[in-house]
From TrEMBL:
Organism: Vagococcus hydrophili
An individual GO BP term: prosthetic group biosynthetic process
EC number: 2.7.7.61
Catalyzed reaction equations: apo-[citrate lyase ACP] + 2'-(5''-triphospho-alpha-D-ribosyl)-3'-dephospho-CoA = holo-[citrate lyase ACP] + diphosphate
GO molecular function, one term: holo-citrate lyase synthase activity
Keywords recorded for this protein, A-Z: Lyase, Nucleotidyltransferase, Transferase
Pfam families: CitX (PF03802)
Name of this protein: citrate lyase holo-[acyl-carrier protein] synthase
Domain of life: Bacteria
Length: 178
């Protein structure tokens, strides 16, 4: 089981990680003009957010994003991976408008079961405000739950599935990819 090792994270650890990620996103966008930022994490349930297997899956997803950008001839001007016990973050700065980048990354998130683990945000900056392009801009249906066909956010909010059920499913996905 891939969740058998790793340092357990608290809610405070996760909130601190999120705040650090947001500050880094803003810095990247403020330091670079006319770019779109792709910020990538994974949907990992439970207190273990990183270990060698989770990082392996993260790297696989990072490679999928990179290859999709190259296939579409999107110019990547910067890319970085940050690995922390509280999770992994991947960043791409690209010379492309946010809307086509979001369309491309939505396809990645929907193309396979593994894609449902990907959490890819598309950001830009306008008048020093961070702007996120969401699925709702496209009138797309919400992302589906990893375990059922319901809206993933509703399942998460209502805790419809246990952390253990979700981890078992992620472990199955990992075993199929290795």
């Amino acid at each position: 089981m891939i969740f058998g090792s790793g340092v357990e994270q608290t809610v405070e650890d996760m909130l601190r990680h999120r705040e650090q990620r947001m500050m880094f996103q803003k810095k990247l966008l403020n330091d670079n003009e006319e770019v779109t930022l792709i910020s990538y994490t994974m949907n990992i349930p439970g207190p273990i957010k990183n270990n060698s297997a989770i990082f392996e899956m993260f790297n696989y997803g990072f490679g999928l994003i990179e290859q999709a950008l190259k296939n579409e001839k999107v110019e990547i001007i910067y890319q970085k991976i940050i690995q922390l016990p509280s999770g992994n973050d991947g960043f791409f700065l690209v010379k492309e408008l946010p809307i086509p980048v979001k369309e491309l990354t939505m396809k990645l998130e929907e193309q396979s079961e593994f894609g449902r683990l990907l959490d890819i945000d598309i950001l830009s900056i306008e008048q020093e405000e961070l702007i996120q392009v969401s699925r709702s801009h496209f009138k797309e249906n919400p992302r589906k739950c990893l375990l059922c066909s319901a809206d993933a956010k509703n399942c998460a909010r209502s805790r419809k599935h246990s952390v253990e059920e979700l981890q078992i499913k992620i472990n199955e996905i990992y075993e199929r990819m290795t």
